[in-house]
Amino acid sequence: MAISAKDVMNLRKKSGLGMMECKAALEEAGGDMAVAEENLRKKGLAKMDGRADRESAEGRVAAAVCDDASQGALVEVNTETDFTAKNDAFGAMVDQIAAMGLGQASGDLVKSDAMQAAIDEIRLTTKENVQFAKGAVFGGEGKKVGSYVHFTGKLGVLVECQGDAPAQLLKDLCMHISAITPAPLGLSEEDIPAEIVEKEKEIAKGQAIEQGKPEAIAEKMVVGKIRKYYDDVVLLRQKFIKDDSKQIKDLLPAGVTITRFARYQVGN
Question: Which domains, from first to last, does the chain contain?
């Protein structure tokens, strides 16, 4: 059957593919536009699946929070180039996936078929290896959630508090976690992996011995060094970035506790 130039152009606009490829797809589909579009989509995704080994080191982070702050979601989606990561369509897709996460059970965000379909659309148009990296859903009964995403889209934070946490507190906590160096590794001392603490102890003792300190003095110096280390990497013990006369735990009003946080940074 004859395929009109108008139909070829319409399919080209929808698919972003070349004239000859679109014409062949329409001929194969007997002129049915919907069938041709679906066939091109399947073929395009099959080609992209064959390139899944290409590194996706760039990407964006996005967050979504319910109007009443009772639930929030944070996601990271990766792609191959910073050019694509900065594309408006890519950013809109990541925002959409974060919004889709609202309503899921608290915990790790589960990638749904609808989320994958949104990712696939970007894979087809950019021809890059776009992949869902990770996601988290916070919130629940008696919880308040805050979020922050840096204007670059490369860094995002989600914080969950038990109790009626004021909006300004949630904002301050998110901004602190995003900006403080070093970034917090855990909420409390118990959250810091034992192997990391042991490594810090080993380094501290080695430095003391190198300075010629006796064993007993070296051990005492290790205790002090670890205390300082906890002050640096435990969120509740960190000095508030906007007022270093206070620790983060000092910001919490009566009845409010931080229950968890997530900090996503593209490339880390």
Answer: 5-49 (1.10.8.10), 58-183+243-265 (3.30.479.20), 193-232 (1.10.286.20)
